[in-house]
Amino acid sequence: MTTQTTSSGELRRTLGFWDLVLLAMGTVIGSGIYLVPGLVLRQTGAQTGPAMIVWVAAGILSLLGALTYAELGAMKPEAGGLYAFIRDAFGPLSAFLYGWTSFFVIASGSVATLAVAFSNYFAQIVPMGPAAAKLVAIGVIAVTAAINIRGTRGSANVQNWTTGLKVGALLVMGIALIALGHPPHDETATMWPPSITPSLLTGFGTAMIGVLWAYEGWQYVTFSAGETLDPQRTFPRAIAAATAALVVTYLLASFGYIAALGPRGAAQSDHVAADAVGVLLGPIAGKLVGALILVSIFSAANGLLLTVPRLYFAMARDGVFFKRLAVVHPRFGTPAVAIMAIALWSAVLALSGTFEQLLTYVVFTAWIFYAMGGIAVLVLRSKEPDAARPFRVPGYPVTPLLFVASALLLVGNTVVAQPQRAATGLAVVLLGTPAFLVWRAKARRASALSIPAPVER
Fold first, then answer.
1. 10-34: per-residue pLDDT in tens?
2. CATH topology classification for 17-444
3. DSSP string, 20-42
4. pTM (two decimals)
């Protein structure tokens, strides 16, 4: 694949269709698919039919979101993605609050979580003490940061291989479990419940929220629109294809677990992938699945560092974040300072252990901004009716509205179920307001000083 060079100070357009597909899938697939299906079965009464419907319904809602963001990405193919969509639709403050929360908690906390999870799974293969585990976690962050600083193309290649490996392994595992699995006979286990009860509906809703979290992450690929070759054509196809492929992969793996363990056996398992493979391969299964999870986690961490620094790069370009984060490395063509900044802060969170508490309070707020991204399609069609739209979301306006409704369902569930946590999370987000005002004032002063005085005649 050829790389399109750009003028000095600009990011290079080097990502093609398959790069974006594998980037989106790799960022989404972490450790959830190896654990969550058992929880979904428990919440749906160990009924295979409702459990599968949960995965399909959540996948469809995610696909609606992907199609919505595809229009925005094709319309505004610039670095920053969702940040730029929110900025142009709702103004700079809303966009800044998203970037602020992403840098200090959501994205950095996610990287820290993945790094610590990697060290925990690695310890199951190679026993080690707490100090060594912290070093492994920091090492994961350092390695992925170095890969991404040295070049977008090189990082994309790593992402392609690791994502291809884990997706291929998931597909092979699912097919093998379905073909060879012999679940224990259980006369009480049924495909469908005899009737729809309030408890089933409640469990379905709870499971839906959990599965939507498992699909979360495809939106990160929007941050890389500014590095995409032929973005108006490539971006919409890639994000839609990636989300559809995720649905198929998750369904196949989930059904494979049921085929191996039976619906009740899978529902009772806290490590459903390892237990399902163990039925076929015995004790070695734990290490095999553990190794697969390590690849999966590493791929997700690399995907985050390949995408989210572009958000901070765009903020710095707008004059509302540390200006050094807008620097493009003259040799590697990457936002090297932005990558180093998020990696260092993620390492601090990983060492301190505070990321778990921070994410608990704040991560639900990300879905407020995801909903704003969906609404941005409606706003921008009104504000910029004549703008070029190489791709238009099908089913408009129903498609974006359904996605927005699902995002607000997640937010509303947290507000109702955990009002104190929701209030704390929103307070953390709003703490960015004074920071925005300070940076905005600095940018205006700098702009005023850079305007040459009028020449007297």
1. 778 888 999 999 999 999 998 778 8
2. Amino acid/polyamine transporter I (1.20.1740)
3. HHHHHHHHH-SSGGGTHHHHHHH
4. 0.86
